[in-house]
Amino acid sequence: MSRGRSEYIDSPANEIHEGATEVRENLERDPLLGRKHAIFSDMRAKGLTDYVALPLYTRSASGIW
To answer: How many domains does the chain have?
Structure first.
C-alpha cells in the first residue's frame, strides 16, 4: 500500500508510522466513539471484535519497518 493513497492515510498503519506506540480498537463498541478508520467498518462486518497494531522496530537506521 502506497503511503500517498487515501487508504493508507486513513489507516492504523499510518498512525503507527506517524509515531503512535499502539493502535487498539474495541470493534464491539459504538463506532461513533472510536477511531474513524474505514477498515474498522469492514472488520466489524466480518465479525471481528478487537484490533491492535504495534510498531515493528528493526535494527536498521530507519527505526520503524
So the answer is: 1
